[in-house]
Design goal:
The two termini are 41 Å apart. Helix 3 packs across helix 12, helix 4 packs parallel to helix 12 and helix 5 crosses helix 11. The longest helix is centred in the C-terminal third of the chain and has 29 residues. Strand 12 and strand 13 form a beta hairpin. The strands form three sheets. Strands 2-8-7-6-5-3-4 form a seven-stranded mixed sheet, sandwiched between helices. The protein has 398 residues and is of the alpha/beta class. The structure holds pyridoxal-5'-phosphate (PLP). Pyridoxal-5'-phosphate binds next to helix 5.
């Protein structure tokens, strides 16, 4: 089949093979612990869900304005204003069908053939593909656990060329949970301004932060939106992954351009999701309470998981996350001719222990695997115990 250049470089998500095996094993009745999931194991708070239901019952089910209904854009602008302490303009908000679409709008609008976009690795799995869909080239910058999995200005400067048009930053990070400090982010923002590079700052886990109420936003360290796009949404903060509700925030002229792109692809986001999200962003006190409760559970689970590893599998290195809901573990000392990479390792682990993780290769870090802690404590402990037992064997040791 002859396909277009648009999709030539797009690969299926690195999680698909493991997810398929997971389903197959479960269908055979095996007790699979799926720690591959990238979504909170909580229900959408009732008052948010009820606002969505009420909107359907009241017949508010027509097309909406492409960049979102006015009350939602205003509520999001107010949320940004109160969170960051700087006035935000609703005209800069574009509501999207999930944060992923906001990322697509930004990449497709800002980058094109001949452009390079810097992406620090480990990265969220879709960033390189989104850049490629815009026919630009991702330029991956590796970071190590010793560097806290954070990119430095020196590394950015070394990677810079006149073709570099953008940088995608994600703090707290999926998959590592690394969180940039205010100083680090300010230094990166100053570098980007000097080099005239767009920063797309994916802040979808901003309020799932373990050492503070929230992580630093790019908005905290910049005075102008001229080179900045903020990506956020309801998926993770309000446990609304299936509603498909995200947004971007940037300057008004760029937001209008995003809206034009979106008008030709999906139009406005799902209307019930927009009404539900309006309730969340409007009732900040209630919504923040729900976010804080969830973040506190994740924080406790993080501590527990690190403890389980110390107890059941002390030989496995875990990078201690400061946010999001993942633990990135180092697995390459278990590689062998039969299990040569993270995909083979995760396959082996699932076959032998019924524990599903996501291979680090999906995030540009093949020496690692990602554990989602969006699972009950008992399941997490049992998974780590099974891993410890299995990996004490000889099967995968070099
Ligand atoms: N950005 C990051 C870092 C994510 O982890 C995810 C989802 O896993 C997204 C964006 C996409 O979010 P949404 O489900 O709202 O499209």
């Amino acid at each position: 089949m002859r396909l277009s250049e648009n999709v030539r470089q797009i690969e299926p998500s690195g999680t698909i093979a493991i997810a398929a095996l997971c389903r197959e094993l479960r269908a055979k009745g095996r007790d699979v612990i799926d720690l591959g999931v990238g979504e909170p194991d909580f229900r959408t708070p009732d008052f948010i869900a009820e606002a969505g239901i009420a909107s359907i019952q009241q017949g508010m089910t027509q097309y909406t304005p492409v960049p979102g209904i006015a009350p939602l854009r205003e509520a999001i602008a107010k949320h940004i204003t109160t969170t960051v302490g700087k006035p935000a303009d609703a005209a800069g908000v574009v509501v999207t069908s999930g944060a992923k679409q906001a990322l697509f709008n930004a990449c497709f609008t800002l980058f094109g053939p001949g452009d390079e976009v810097l992406i620090p690795a480990p990265y969220w799995t879709s960033y390189p593909a989104l850049v490629r869909l815009a026919r630009a080239q991702p330029k991956i910058l590796e970071t190590t656990s010793e560097q806290g999995f954070k990119v430095s200005v020196a590394a950015l400067e070394a990677a810079w060329s006149p073709s570099v048009r953008g940088l995608i930053i994600n703090s707290p990070s999926n998959p590592t949970g690394a969180v940039y400090t205010r100083d680090e982010l300010a230094a990166i923002a100053a570098w980007a301004a000097r080099r005239d590079v767009w920063i797309i700052s994916d802040e979808i886990y901003m309020r799932i932060c373990f050492n503070a109420a929230r992580a630093t936003s790019l908005l905290d360290v910049i005075d102008s939106l001229d080179r900045a796009v903020i990506i956020d949404g309801a998926s993770k903060a309000y446990a609304m992954t299936g509603w498909r509700l995200g947004y971007s925030y940037t300057s008004k002229p760029l937001a209008e351009q995003f809206s034009t792109v979106q008008s030709q692809i999906t139009s406005g986001a799902s209307s019930p999701a927009q009404y539900a999200a309006t309730a969340a962003y409007k009732d900040a006190a209630r919504a923040d309470g729900a976010v804080r409760a969830m973040a506190s559970v994740f924080s406790k689970r993080r501590d527990k998981v690190l403890e389980h590893f110390r107890e059941h599998a002390p030989e496995i290195y875990c990078f201690p996350p400061d946010g999001a809901f993942y633990v990135f573990i180092r697995i390459d000392n278990y590689f062998s001719p039969l299990v040569p990479d993270s995909a083979a390792f995760c396959h082996w682990l699932l076959e032998n222990t019924d524990v599903a993780l996501v291979p680090g290769s999906a995030f540009g870090a093949d020496q690692y695997a990602r554990i989602s802690i969006a699972a009950p404590n008992a399941a997490l402990e049992e998974a780590v115990r099974r891993m410890g037992t299995a990996l004490r064997g000889v099967e995968v040791r070099v």
